[in-house]
Amino acid sequence: MEILELLPSSFGYVILTYLYSWIMLCYLGIKVGGARKKYDVKYPTMYSDKDPVFNCIQRAHQNTLEVYPQWLVFQTIASLVYPTSAAVLGAIWVTSRFSYAWGYYTGDPVKRMQGAYGYIGLFGVIILTISVALQLLGVI
User: Fold this and answer.
1) C-alpha distances in angstroms, 86 versus 62, 89, 91, 102, 122?
2) pLDDT greater at residue 2 or residue 110
């Protein structure tokens, strides 16, 4: 049996969400690369002792990378049973990472909270993942 026969057609939205997340990661990485050049922060130095704005740009990317693996796992599990809902929640999370970064890029770390709505997407796929687990266990 082919994979396209196993997955619902709405799983295509999930794949598009993964592609959207890849675009987001590339964007954040490019912004760090540009900031390295602008603030003269050489590799492998992670943070600047002179330029807090560089550190904010770096942290926006780094924090996203710290959460990304967990999001991928929950997104994938939730998507197997709830592809449309998971795709919507995933799109919310990915979009929030742009808002988070743009707030952080101002140099005022408090403004990163402009992306706090991403918790809707993250906690949403976690809840759907729990539902999938409970269904598999026959609890619900």
Assistant:
1) 24, 5, 8, 24, 10
2) 110
